[in-house]
Amino acid sequence: MIVVPIKEGENIERALKKFKRKFEKTGAMREIRSRQAFTKPSVQRREELKKAAYIQKLQEDSE
User: For residue 4, which phi and psi values (nearest 5 degrees)?
Assistant: First the structure.
């Protein structure tokens, strides 16, 4: 459960923004979306390899 402590007199908008940021960091929505449809392990592995190659290419270009 996400807990956002609110100080006395703190703006509710700021507290909501903190909550949204914490919720995003947990990755709950990403998890829910990924579980909506089954992806075969082979397809999942292929996507991970493509992503890793892309990130490695970006890092090599920046150096």
Answer: -120, 105
